[in-house]
């Protein structure tokens, strides 16, 4: 099964990056339109990407400042059962982020599109954490 993998630095401490990928008020600044949930194993996050994209994901890993993972429960067919995660390591000037989106059923067109979209979303995450930049939901894939 193919995986999407991205490694990049963020000039902020791991605790700040962890908050940005787990707390709905911050998660909403770079990924979904709206979300609900809290970072505790077994909790289900509600992820709103628009009227036809009401997704749900279960927290399967939640280690403050270290790692966070969601297993997609209700989503696009290609995403169902995949795992989206962040592993965080302190570095001299902030945090090294190892992002993954694992267990895709195949490397089809949707997989390739998602590789591109994740790179864009992760750029918005980085700019939000480092600079406080807020990009409206509708424009996130255009920055």
Which helices and strands, and how do they pair?
Layout: E1 4-10, H1 14-22, H2 24-27, E2 34-36, E3 44-48, E4 54-63, E5 67-74, E6 83-91, E7 94-102, H3 109-131
Antiparallel strand pairs: 1-7, 2-3, 3-4, 4-5, 5-6, 6-7
Overall geometric form: globular
Strand order of the largest sheet: 1-7-6-5-4-3-2
Give the % helix: 25-40%
Number of structural domains: 1
What is the CATH architecture term? 2-Layer Sandwich
Low-pLDDT residue intervals, each spanning 5 or more residues? none
**Count of β-strands:** 7
Beta-strand residue percentage: 35-45%
State the name of the first-level CATH class: Alpha Beta
Largest sheet: 7 strands, antiparallel
- The average pLDDT score comes to 97
Textual characterization of the structure:
- The chain has 143 residues and is of the alpha+beta class.
- It has one domain (4-142): START domain (Alpha-D-Glucose-1,6-Bisphosphate, Chain A, domain 4, 2-Layer Sandwich), CATH 3.30.530.20.
- The chain has 3 helices and 7 strands, in the order βααββββββα.
- Strands 1-7-6-5-4-3-2 form a 7-stranded antiparallel β-sheet.
- Strand 4 (54-63) and strand 5 form a beta hairpin.
- It is globular and about 40 Å long.
- The model has no long low-confidence stretch (mean pLDDT 97).
Q: Can you tag this structure with a few keywords?
A:
single chain; alpha+beta; Alpha-D-Glucose-1,6-Bisphosphate, Chain A, domain 4; globular
Provide a compact summary of the structure.
This protein is of the alpha+beta class. The chain contains three helices and seven strands, in the order βααββββββα. The protein has helices spanning 14-22, 24-27, 109-131; strands spanning 4-10, 34-36, 44-48, 54-63, 67-74, 83-91, 94-102.
